[in-house]
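Hi, here's the filled form for the chain we discussed.

Project: internal
Contact: R.S.
Residues: 269
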Amino acid sequence: MAEQVAKLSLFPLTTEVNRQGHLIIGGDLDSCDFDILVDDEGIISVKGNDALLSIHKTRATMDFEQGGELSVGANGKVEINALDGIASPGLLTSWDFVNGGVLNLDKGGELLIGDNNLNTPIAFDNTGGVMLADSIVTFDNTRGRSVRHGVVILLSDSDFSGVISGQRISGVDFTATSLVSSLVQRIVEVSGAQLRLNVSTLFVDADGNDKIRLRNGAIGTLIDGDVITGDNSSTGIVHGTNAGIAINFKPGVDSSGSAAVIRGGGGRF
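And the returned structure, exactly as it came back:
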């Protein structure tokens, strides 16, 4: 008898995880196999008071289409290949938001992505889909707090945490790092042309700060006036300007031997 694949299908029903709920899909890579289909305006909604959806130690595909939505709201978290924030790799072979499928990361929501077992690649496609992130960061100086974006977080480096940019993504060989990079990568404009960086990531963090992640994994914060214009695939150096002065960001190491960002040219760092 052929092995059965479990199917979670929502069309147009809503599955909601809230108020400190924890929904776990998977747990045994040898026996768990799920095809998750959300279409016809069905919704998986994770929000409120540490609500958590964990997909780990399972073979899986995820398909959101025809209005099907993954919605992560304030204080909600969805983790892929992780359990309670700790790596627990499975095999997510494909993940699609196509034909009107929606990924919606609201203020305070988190999407945590870890690598597949044995670093098996992930196929991801959002062609014809919709990527939504709260687009406004405000500061209330009477209460002294900022309103945070929803963010995508790399499991192996929580500092790599950014707001989804809404760019079209389609590929079959994503690692967790390259998928997070593609989801948060900002476009740079040079002489009217819109370009993507080659080996670096320009992104915005939860508090609205502009960040640059270099090829060596080090992350720096841009200062007022910094404009990124490109990067070099061979050297990993990121180029830009500030007040008409050329600047650059070089991969390097600090006194402890850890990866670091070395700023050159105008301004401070």
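Let me know if anything looks off before we file it.
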